[in-house]
Amino acid sequence: MSFPLSVQLHLPAWVPGFLARLPASLDSPEERMRVAISLAEANVANGSGGPFGAVVVTADSGRVVAAGVNRVEPAACSSAHAEIIALSLAQQRLGSASLADTRLGPLELVSSCEPCAMCLGAIPWSGVRSVLCGATKADAEAVGFDEGDRSEAWIDRLEQRGIVVRTGVLRQAAAEVLERYARGGGAIY
User: Fold this and answer.
1) CA 12 to CA 15: how far, in whole Å?
2) Which residues are CB-contacts of 85 (< 8 A; sequence separation ≥ 6)?
3) Could you tell me how far CA 133 lies from the centroid of its own chain?
4) Predicted TM-score (pTM) above 0.90
5) Which of the residues 41, 83, 114, 147 is marked catalytic?
6) CA within 20 to 30 Å of 73's CA: 39, 52, 128, 160, which one?
7) Is 83 marked active-site?
């Protein structure tokens, strides 16, 4: 019996074209969230994973540093959430395990949905200084996703660590992606 010696997670082939069409900067929280939601929509439309998208951007200018989409099913990897992939690719791009003190200034994670228990745990260690979320944990759970245990005070705990959190940005649009995915028979995990 041989054992796997590495894990490789790849963004789908459509992502580079998607990113090439983005403006140089995403100025408002709503613009940034539209990109995360569009990533989630495109991931579902292309059959390349679940209904979640995320980007890491520079907090001041909104320049995209990295993007991620959910790859749980195609990669057979339960940790291949959009946020984890976006954070990991940003760290690789910048050559550092921490995004706290980069040459680009403070970075922000923008996710089409509030973090599950796993992604919440990754946020403080990633080094991002702010987080924007679209759909809520309740929205994801309403269609059947298991978001895990998360303290009701999760926002306060992140803010105590110096991470600014804003949730509910374009919530309805983000939640609709989850609902369409579930109605279409997408895998719920």
Assistant:
1) 6
2) 9, 11, 54, 68, 69, 71
3) 9
4) yes
5) 83
6) 128
7) yes
Per-residue confidence (pLDDT) for residue 101, from 0 to 100: 87
Q: How far apart are the first and last CA of the chain?
A: 29
- Paired with 165 in beta bridges are 131
Give me the sheet containing 64-69, strands edge to edge: 64-69, 53-58, 107-113, 130-135, 164-166
Convert the pLDDT of each residue in 46-72 to its tens digit: 999 999 999 999 999 999 999 999 999
The pair of structure tokens assigned to 119 is 């992604």
**Residue pointed to by tokens 């895990």:** 148
> Taking CA 74 as the corner, what is the angle to CA 124 and CA 97, rounded to the nearest 5 degrees?
25
